[in-house]
Specification:
Rossmann fold; 5-stranded parallel sheet; about 45% helix; alpha/beta
């Protein structure tokens, strides 16, 4: 059985993420979307919220599961018996970092390969950080995220402003 792991913080999940999920799920028998807690980032959404949002948008595909995890991605890949880690590449700048990570993972777990999917052109500019920046200034993010994610982001930023007294 071919099992793929698509890891990420998905804070928030974007149309670019969903595109990679849809395309990569066709390459494997089972695709696990692994929502991780990135210690270098302060997430807008809790891990549970991110898992719920992705699950809502992937439930139509019977070979996609969404789970949370902590620790090294390659260790989680071994734990779930994933043969491959799926990574999306937006630009050349992504490739250098991702290649180094893939090579390191290969040393740790020789049985786990990394595949790179070039992001669809219509999403090549898109990042969760950019979406959060636009949303924090009440900009229109409807072209970047599903409607429910857009509404959840608006609510989060409104709550933050209320707490700060803005």
């Amino acid at each position: 059985m071919k099992i793929g792991l698509y890891p990420g913080s998905f804070d928030p999940v974007t149309f670019g993420h969903l595109d990679v999920i849809e395309r990569s799920r066709k390459m494997v028998d089972k695709l696990i979307v692994g929502v991780l807690q990135n210690r270098q980032k302060t997430p807008l959404f809790s891990m549970e919220e991110r898992v719920r949002m992705i699950s809502e948008h992937t439930k139509k595909w019977n070979n996609v599961e969404v789970h949370s995890f902590t620790g090294l991605t390659v260790d989680y890949a071994k734990k779930v018996h994933a043969n491959m880690i799926v990574r999306g590449l937006r630009a050349v700048t992504d490739f250098e970092f991702e290649l180094q990570l893939a090579q390191t993972n290969k040393v740790i777990a020789e049985e786990v390969d990394t595949i790179f999917l070039a992001t669809s052109l219509k999403y090549s500019y898109l990042s969760s950080s950019t979406v959060k920046e636009i949303a924090s200034f009440h900009g229109d993010i409807s072209a970047f995220v599903p409607k429910d994610v857009e509404e959840a982001m608006k609510k989060k930023f409104d709550e933050q402003e209320r707490r700060r007294g803005i």
